[in-house]
Hints:
Helix content is 34%, strand content 30%. By secondary structure, the chain is an alpha/beta fold. It has one domain: P-loop containing nucleotide triphosphate hydrolases (Rossmann fold).
Amino acid sequence: MTGHLAVETERLRRVYTTRGATGRASKLVVLDDVTLSVRRGELFGLLGVNGAGKSTLLQILAAQLRPTSGTAKVAGFDVCRYGSHVRRHVGVVCAADGPVVRLRAPELSSGQRQRLSLERGFAGRPRVLLLDQPTLGLDCAASREMRGFIRRWVHEDDTRTVVMATNDMAEASELCDRVAVLDGGRLLTCETPAALSDRWRPEPPRPDTRAHGAAALEAAFLALVGRRPLLAGA
């Protein structure tokens, strides 16, 4: 692994060519000039609304999808030039694994199936673990167990690294050392959950009210990406 970094991307871009009903080609930019780095031993989060580019970025880091331009290195290996080496050192778990595991083990609960998917991601003793919404669809008890499992795994060995895409602000606030916010394929910011909450707080807190944890992170995230709750106070 190069130095102290587990993941490096520079000006990463992914563009799809689509055709509408008229047959005219158009460009869909899914990742746009994304440059970031993840330190070895870090539990790093990717935040963004659906379609922000989180899953596409994880696919590129897993050497499952080639970028249109730019570079990405995982565990010191370029994902395009040394894809087989990357796949050897990376574990991948995504919510889409659930149906596959359910077919193979229908007697298991959703939490047990999700944990089995996670354990499969650990099977090759990866240096870097890529998680795409690992607690999606789980009840609160199963979700808490899953978060504990992830935390223990990365803290047992300071050479292990987790990059996790999530829409769950409580999960990001509890687990992540730093988070990157993607919107429309672009990287908006990369900082600790606490720093993000403080820096992008939508308005000064009233003396009798102090937002913290997941609530503060969610408010900051919505302010940063330009979204607002549908209902006042929501």
